[in-house]
Amino acid sequence: MKAVSVGEGYGRVNLIGEHLDYNGGCVLPLQIKNSIICELSENPEIDCISIASDKYQKTLSIEKLEKRDDWADFIIGSCLFFGKKYSIIIKELSFKISSTLPLGIGLSSSAAITVSTLKALNNFYKKNMSDDELIDLAYGIENIFVGVGGGIMDQFASVLGNRKQALYLNTLSRSYELVNIFDDYNFLIIDSNTKRILSNSEFNQKKELCLSAAKKMDLKNLCEKEFISEKEIKLLSDEEFKVCRHVIEENIRVKKAVQFLKDDNPNEFGKLMTESHSSLSEYYGVSTDELNELVNLSNYFGALGSKLTGAGFGGAVVTLVKNDKVEEFKKMILENYKKAKFV
Ligand code: GLA
């Protein structure tokens, strides 16, 4: 069937500022070349919708727009939320999803699939949805319908980012600035090839700790703070203290990192990336042995700094390498970490 409307959603790599977008902090994602494409066509032979993907053999025939607890939920949720927003009954449509974006390794495939589907629907129904509306709708689908409690970073990066400029976003005020990345250095992404077990529950557990710590300190968002006093530490459990420490210090790191980016200082920027990783590992508790190994190997073979990207619990790392060292660097990593894949 010929596609009548197409939407594309890009992935992102987060350079620094992890687990801050649901704590009112600042983040620094960079859009990447890999994307998800949604092709939509009319299909009068089906009552509701069908979904096909280049990653799976079987075409799914969806009889009713309701949650199934699998990847199709992003498309079903998009149809439901889009339909509700514009009072349209969505039916007799076929969706075909194809992707150059590896799924579930911390490069925001969830936001990319949702954004691509919403863009395809928007083109098809000619609704002129604004970027802000698209971001909000995509965010609602992931948080309310699919049920992973992330922040607004991925949707913003997918809709408003680009590959040459990092998106410095204040997730509380939603103000943002695009900042040029380094000319002579590359942000490489290495997939550790260990399945990310991003169980919603583990992610949401971390979020709960942040919320309970904020409540005990009488804050709306942890990122309102720049330090925790002795008196406040006594209010917190050990676990709460550790996540707070990561969040508060990471937010300060993001602000410094942006300045180093503007000052063209990759050395200092790289150091902050590695500090961010150590904090994610030690305090936030979302790294794995494999991610730590890749970060250590990368830094050992000449990267200026490295960290896990996205939620953690497996997935990929991002590492800062001088352009003329990239080929040698890749060789060394592949020799020493056989399962690694460069994205
Ligand atoms: C996931 C979420 C994002 C963000 C990151 C951690 O990718 O979707 O909103 O919270 O984790 O920085």
Mean pLDDT, to the nearest integer, reads 95
Number of domains: 2
- The best one-word shape is globular
Order of helices and strands: EEEEEHEHHHEEEHHHHHEEHE
- Got a strand count? 12
Low-confidence stretches: none
Cofactors, ions, other ligands:
alpha-D-galactopyranose
The neighbouring-strand order within the major sheet is 1-3-6-4-5
Number of helices in the DSSP assignment:
10
Distance between the termini: 31 Å
Strand content: 15-25%
* CATH topology term of the largest domain: Ribosomal Protein S5, domain 2
The largest β sheet comes out as: 5 strands, mixed
Q: Name the CATH architecture of the largest domain.
A: 2-Layer Sandwich
The CATH class assignment of the largest domain is Alpha Beta
Computed CA radius of gyration, to the nearest angstrom: 20 Å
Written description of the protein model:
With 343 residues, the chain is of the alpha+beta class. It folds into 2 domains: 5-178, Ribosomal Protein S5, domain 2 (2-Layer Sandwich); 182-342, GHMP kinase, C-terminal domain (Alpha-Beta Plaits, 2-Layer Sandwich). 42% of the residues lie in helices and 22% in strands. The chain is built from 10 helices and 12 strands. The protein has helices at residues 73-86, 109-125, 131-146, 153-160, 200-216, 230-235, 238-262, 266-284, 289-300, 326-336; strands at 5-14, 26-27, 29-42, 49-53, 56-62, 93-99, 165-170, 176-180, 185-191, 305-308, 316-322, 341-342. The strands form 3 sheets. The protein has a 5-stranded mixed beta sheet. Helix 5 (200-216) packs across helix 7 (238-262). Bound molecules: alpha-D-galactopyranose. Residues 14, 18-19, 21-22, 108, 150-151, 153-154, 310-311 line the site of alpha-D-galactopyranose. Alpha-D-galactopyranose is lined by residues 14, 18-19, 21-22, 108, 150-151, 153-154, 310-311.
